[in-house]
Design goal:
InterPro entries: ABC_Gly_betaine_transp_sub-bd. With 335 residues, the chain is α/β, with parallel strands linked by helices. 49% of the residues lie in helices and 15% in strands. It has 2 domains: 191 residues, D-Maltodextrin-Binding Protein, domain 2 (3-Layer(aba) Sandwich); 125 residues, 3-Layer(aba) Sandwich (D-Maltodextrin-Binding Protein, domain 2). α1 crosses α15, α3 crosses α17 and α14 crosses α15.
Length: 335
């Protein structure tokens, strides 16, 4: 593990050193300073570092990371034109703000960063579905509470929901009612925290024990463990608002929609740096790839920069399609 981290750190140092060369310095004057929002969660930090490395090494930019979070970053980009890029924006809470700013020519939605979108759902381990194929559907789940025994309530099955305070806990409570899981013999268990929920899945999987739980991706958990999303649950936009409300009197069967995850840029960046913008607007990553990178980061206690370097070295078949061949060779040489 320490060897991997040291190697990634060495690659990072090499990457930074290339900027000191006269050629890169001259090119940087053309591209100029570029600010990239680095969000606090793992995938966003990796993506921010990825864009920084490619912009610096491949396009001669003077790219730097600035701290960010979804709402403050969107507000700053739409009102102040800074930062230039935000590689992982979940727009659900600010769709109208983004649409208005885009219509007014202040920002651009460059690309769908995650090819499969952000995913939320109810999951069971693949090894359980292999043994009991009926568990791949909600009807099979309803009929087999005994396969997920709750040690604290004998005779009941356990469903791991979201920790208190997460919006998904409200959704899960309503879906739990809508699908009749109480009548089917299930209890709803609060794991207490995000790490508690991830830890419960990890513990069960590594011991090949049963678990039925809510989770989401991209995450290290989904990169490490083969989990199957329960089918037979369809998203219905017409009844979704009620399902998300704590006061929903009559929740109907539903399921989480796939969430668009976007790269947002300022219009000024796009217009002033067309080549760099062409790269940024081409970045889209399959969820299974980013899950695997996040799992590697967690296993190696690696930084977002090390994760980005690991991605560039491990998945050239993904990222070299985003850039011209000469840029790809320049980035590879920097690594």
């Amino acid at each position: 593990m320490h060897t991997l981290i040291a190697g990634a750190a060495a690659m990072a140092a090499t990457s930074l050193a290339v900027l000191a060369t006269p050629t890169a310095a001259a090119a940087a004057e053309d591209c100029g300073r570029v600010t990239i929002a680095e969000m606090s969660w793992t995938s966003a930090a990796m993506l921010a570092n990825l864009q920084k490395i490619v912009l610096n090494e491949g396009y001669g930019c003077d790219a730097e990371l600035v701290p960010g979070d979804t709402v403050p970053t969107i507000t700053s980009m739409t009102e102040k034109g800074e930062p230039d890029l935000a590689p992982e924006i979940w727009p659900n809470a600010a769709k109208e703000v983004i649409a208005e700013a885009e219509a007014e020519g202040r920002v651009k939605v460059a690309t769908r960063t995650l090819e499969d979108g952000g995913q939320e759902g109810w999951f069971v381990p693949a090894y359980m579905v292999d043994e009991h194929p009926e568990l791949a559907t909600i009807e099979g789940i309803r009929q087999n509470a005994q396969l997920f025994p709750d040690q604290e309530e004998p005779g009941k099955g356990r469903f791991y929901t979201c920790p208190s305070g997460w919006q998904c806990q409200i959704v899960n409570e309503n879906l739990f009612e809508a699908y009749g899981l109480d009548e089917a013999g299930y209890t709803m268990f609060d794991p207490g925290s995000g790490p508690g929920l991830a830890g419960a899945i990890a513990k069960a999987y590594e011991r090949r024990e049963p678990i039925f739980a809510y989770y989401f991706e991209p995450t290290p958990v989904m990169g490490k463990y083969d989990m199957v999303m329960i089918g037979g649950m369809d998203h219905d936009p017409e009844t979704w608002d009620c399902v998300t409300s704590r006061d929903c009197a009559d929740p109907q069967p539903n399921m989480y929609p796939s969430s668009e995850v976007l790269t947002l840029t300022t219009t000024a960046f796009a217009e002033n740096n067309p080549d760099a913008y062409a790269f940024v607007s081409s970045v889209t990553i399959p969820n299974d790839v980013i899950n695997a990178v996040l799992a590697w980061q967690e296993d190696n206690q690696a930084t977002g920069e090390a994760g980005a370097l690991h991605f560039l070295e491990t998945y050239p078949e993904v990222w070299t399609d985003w850039v011209p061949a000469d840029v790809a060779e320049t980035v590879k040489a920097a690594l």
